[in-house]
Write a structure and sequence with these properties.
Elements: H1 2-18, E1 22-24, H2 29-51, H3 53-58, H4 63-78, E2 82-84, H5 87-108
Antiparallel strand pairs: 1-2
Helix pairs in contact: 1-2, 1-5, 2-4, 4-5
Length: 112
Amino acid sequence: MIARLVLSAVAVGITAYFMDSVTIDHWWLTIIVAVVLGFINTAVRPIVKILSLPITLLTLGIFSLVINGLMVLLCGWLIDGFHVDGLWTGILFSIILAAVNWILELMFAKEE
């Protein structure tokens, strides 16, 4: 669990480093952002996905990207020192973060 948290924090830091419109004031905030995003994705996101199911079906799943962007914006609103410029930035941040997380997990995954 600690290893996943560290990988998520590194992924948040890498993603924020390459995006000018996302800023993190201190390096240790990447750990807090990773924890809060994990909590939001576990607790809040499923409720929002269920409530927005009709529009998600109408848009053939594209609205899920908007939900991901909104979760990043919520995280930015909750954490002082983590700034996201807008919804499109949040959507792009969530896409890049998912890709960076995937790559890091491929690099550091233990063979079972």
